Amino acid sequence: MRKGIFKTGLLVLALLAALTPVYWMITISLKIEVDQFAYPPKWFWFTPTLRHYYDAFVTRSFGHYLLTSAIVAVVSTACALVIGTLAAYALTRFRLPYNLDRKLSLWILSTRMFPAIVTAVPLFLMMRDLRLLNTKASLIVVYTAFNLPFVVWMMRGFFAEVPRDLEEAALVDGDSRLGALVRVVLPLVSPGLAATAVFCLIVSWNEFLFALVLTQTDAAMTLPVGIAGRVTQYEIKWGVMSAAGAVAMIPILIFALAMQRYLVRGLSLGAVKG
Amino acid sequence: MPRSRRFFNAPNRRELLLPYLLVAPALAVLLALSIYPLLYSITISLQQETASGIVWTLAHFKRLLTDNFFRTAMVHTFVYAVAALTCEFLIGLVLALLLNQQIRGRGLFRASLLVPMMLPTVVVGVVWRLLLNPNFGAINGTLKQLGVNTEGLTWTASPRLAFVAVVAVDVWQWTPFVFLVLLAGLQAIPQEPYEAALIDGSSRWQTFRHVTLPLLKPAILIVLLLRTMDLLRVFDQIFILTEGGPGFATEMISLYIYRTAFRFSDFGYAAAMSFVLLAVTNFVSVVYLKLLQDEKRDF
Questions:
Q1: Is A67 part of the contact surface with chain B (CB cutoff 8 Å)?
Q2: Among B71, B43, B61, which Cα is nearest to B253's?
Q3: Which residues of B touch A145 (CB under 8 A)?
């Protein structure tokens, strides 16, 4: 009995520790200035206002950043998913000579291990030479490459779980390899495919360093870069900042909750099947 | 059972080429956007612009040896990584051991723990700037209410506290991940070894030391590997929270490379430093993977 209480207490404590900081930001985004700076801090009772949200997304350009973030995330995810799934399928279903299937998989994974700053410097110079700085295209291309190893590894795991007999049956029935992939295998791995897609969306949506390096103008600035640009300025509009932050995390939270079953697996690049 | 001929005959040319065709786009993208940039980076790290044009030189790498800022940033990064990794691992392990059983409201619990780690790092930075603000932040406000003198607690304005703060932020964000991976690992351990230990009359500590820990080792190594990689390259939260300051107190290697390249336009030197970071992360991951392989062989 006492053990049960201890455990429940521990759980509640862990939940509070995880959620309170985020809750605090949300309250700031809903408070008028006087309440933001109040002592003692106002955790619950304050007059809510949506003014900061209006300020951020209508008066200022955060609405525009939001749109850029969404476009970049969706397009790059779609590209990475198509290219990566095809590669993953080939690497799980075909034995290539010289153990090439295994070597290629490991090589693909290793590209994901590069610290972002290592490629950010040359990518900036390349994009500058190609006159692609401050374009959505540059971010889409970079995020596709960034997510690709992840898609390959996640989908390899999911493909490996599908019994080969099913495709072989389809092949016997006269389907082509690609036909079998599209009609038989993909429907079976669709939950995995969805989880992988959501993961790529989250990573692209959250990504900061490449976006910071490759976009400096409003034309292609994503939400994180927009927020960062304001935070590091001298005078900070805390309400606007918090409102932008709150909106930036909404899609992530919805997605993450929708696929929480696969989350540990995704964050460990398929290594842990939690 | 009749089977189609293509199953038994040698596959035709198209079948043989198919895997390569399927892999080709992925390889092309990675060659263009991961490998080519790396090679490009090597060339700029070995070049310097002088009055008489571009010359090949090792000057950037020589400069690494005498650059105190570089050395300090490296030391900060290691201290930061070790401190955060230790806290995350210990808290995550203790939580996982204590909560390794049916939890009521498990879905809600897990969903809530996911919140910190899924947040955009920039938002994490904003959240903690709001909490740690010495004047109106919730932390100092609450401490003051509890009667603590908060005058000295200037957080991001004091070198030492700023470092503690950036470590704490990472611990806040990533302990849930360590916890979830270790919990998944614990729940994959079969019951039999525990029953055997019980029959042998092992103490709880002995059971933990000789049954749980060895069986959990693969999960531990994987989660430590992933966290170490992320910690060594940390950039976003610190960029938002302290920008490496006050002074140089929380400057990490990624921030210093960023500043060198994009504030001072010294791309050659930035590239040279980034290879040191790459070598270090490679070395660390090779060590972990080696340990992990040895582990697999034992089974």
A1: no
A2: B71
A3: 29-30, 32-34
Could you tell me if A46 lies within 8 Å of chain B, comparing CB atoms?
no
Does A238 touch chain B if contact means CB atoms closer than 8 Å? yes
Distance from the B200 Cα atom to the nearest Cα atom in chain A, whole angstroms: 25
Average pLDDT over residues A19-23: 92
Does B126 sit within 8 Å of A227, measured CB to CB? yes
Residue A229 tokens read as 């640009």
Q: What are phi and psi of B241, to 5 degrees?
A: -80, -45
Q: Find the Cα–Cα–Cα–Cα dihedral A146, A149, A151, A152, rounded to 10°.
A: 160
Residue A235 makes CB contacts below 8 A (sequence gap 6+) with none
CA torsion, points A38, A41, A44, A46, in degrees to nearest 10?
A: 0
> Could you tell me if A4 lies within 8 Å of chain B, comparing CB atoms?
no
DSSP conformation class of B158? S
Average pLDDT (B137-154) is 81
Q: A139 near A210, Cβ under 8 Å?
A: yes
Contact A224 B29 (CB under 8 A): no
Q: What is the ipTM score, two decimals?
A: 0.87
- Decide: residue B55, CB within 10 A, 0-12 exposed, 13-18 middle, 19+ buried: exposed
pTM over 0.95: no
Pairwise CA distance, residues A148 & B277, whole Å = 22
- Test mutation, B126, B143, B237, chain A, max A CBs within 10 A: B126
Contacts of A96 in chain B (CB under 8 A): 19
Which residue of chain A is at minimal alpha-carbon distance from B123?
A245
Whole-number Å distance between alpha carbons of A103 and A101: 6
pLDDT in tens, B249-261: 899 999 999 999 9
SS (H, E, C) B263-297: CCCCHHHHHHHHHHHHHHHHHHHHHHHHHHHHHHH
The residues, ordered by sequence, that sit 6+ positions from A55 with a Cβ below 8 Å of its Cβ are A237, A239, A240, A243
